[in-house]
Amino acid sequence: MARNKRKREPVYLSPGQKLLLTAVLLIVLGLCSTMFLDLRALVAGPNMTDDPAAWTDPITAYVMVGEGELTAPFYNEGLAVMSDLGRGTTLLLKSWEPFVTESGEEYYLASAKDQVGYIACSNVTDDQSDLMQETQVYVRATVDLLETADGLTLGPLAQKGTLLRVMGYDYFKDDGTVNMYHVRMGEETGWIQSEYVVLDYGDSMAHWDEEYTYTDHVWRGDSWGGGDAATLDYWPHEKGDFADEGNAMPEDVYALYIPASDLRAEVIPDYLALTEGTAINTFVVTIDDGGVLAFASEVYKEYGLLDSHHVVGSIESCNEAIQMLKDAGFYVVGRISTFSDAVLAQDRPDWAITDLAGLPKQMSSTYWPSAYCRDVWELKVAFAVEAVEAFGLNEIQFDYVRFPDFIQSYEKEGSVDLKNTYNESKAEAIQRFLTYACDILHEHNVYVGADLFGETSNTYVAAYGQYWPAISNVVDVISGMPYPDHFGSYYMNDRLFVPYKNPYRTLYNWAVLVADRQLECATPAVVRTWLQTWDDASYPYDGLAIKREILGLYDASITGGYMLWHGLGSLVVAEDLVGAVEHDYRTLYEEAKAEHQLLSDYMGVPTTDEVAE
Fold first, then answer.
1. Pair 70, 181 in one domain
2. N or C: which end of the chain has fewer CB within 10 A?
């Protein structure tokens, strides 16, 4: 039986009741809207469209990170990471009032690096003393401390594995790492680049051994007295890259040479004329030729050494000449004779290689400042900085960055004092000098190169301290000097091979070895090679011979370019350069490679002649 439904009576509201109900509904809707917005804020936070420039009384603060971390996340409006901010990054906070999520996480609205976003409150401090976590570090690669963070003066040598107490720092890099630590080593203090330290002792004693490369260095040992290959530094070194600062290195350098005596405005047009119709894009100019200075250096004057040196010109005359080269669009390299400087050695025998009585010792027909002597390091690098600042040089090239030839025979006799304060090997001293030079000069946005004997394409440490992988690992540019007339003749397949009569094959054989050496370090330098341009007594080095030298390099895939050497300058051999320097060898090399050909075959250049046969 169906149940009868009771009829509902309509409800009538008075005007006052209707008004009251409307008000209640509006209040409820308002509360719901507020709750919705608050809920959205729990996910997205406040509006980020605020212009930081309009913030009232903004607060300066800094990014602080947790233990073992270097960066902190910076979030967008939806709390998704939009970037990472390095430790020490300056922040501008809208206020100290945090935005709190539903789960209780707290964030500050902040501006950093032209972005507005959110950063966890735990990653923010207004006290810079909170930023540094490290209290001690260990030396990863033996290096000289600096007395000040922005100076040239060297402090004590910090050996690999040494514990350093952290006293402070100069600044944080964008990635949150420290640039330089202020440290205490025993009773001495100094500054050290962060790349030379680690936090763990075990890590400090490790070696870079990718694909067992370090093991190969270990087995090479010390064959000739130049040092044990195993004690050198093979960890990656950051190379210079100053394109953003207006100093871009050409992909391949094709260079002519100007001696200090020709670094004059009246001579430069003759050099510029040589480049017409060629691929030449660079000039190497000597500014310190070991007793001969291109200008009256204030650095040498401060050391009390200027009067004894022969000065060719002034800062003004050199600047005028170099600016003519730069205004014409050329990359300019400043060459410095480093440890072959007879005048310096005689002026300062306390810095020089001497006999046991303390008198400068003549070796290889000259006197030598000791490559162990830190005072010589400081002088040469300070002079390089002076030249860079005065002339805007693109690169500094250290020539004679070695000990004298046949130094080991004098050592065996016990007849020399090398001023070896730290009991270093020769190869250690050379690599450490170049490390120091790169650290200083890179701060001035300039590249650093080093010249090496052609012999260094071999696997041993040379007696005079040059070892290709160790030097290439540190510098930006490495320049071998495989002059064919410097190599001795030898029999090959029962036939006498005369290197100076075979410029192509000599350079090709050398470059093949160099390609192997380049694989034996973590951060190899650009290979840019010095080439012979002077005639041998019985073999002319004309345009064809020079072209054969160049093709020998490129056929072995050594493509960093060339520099043409003649001690008297390129004007002396101008006619012999014709036919060798008009080509952009890199472009032709890429074309030949695409055709699976050697460049010499692609260009149709014979690599031998009847004289060579």
1. no
2. N
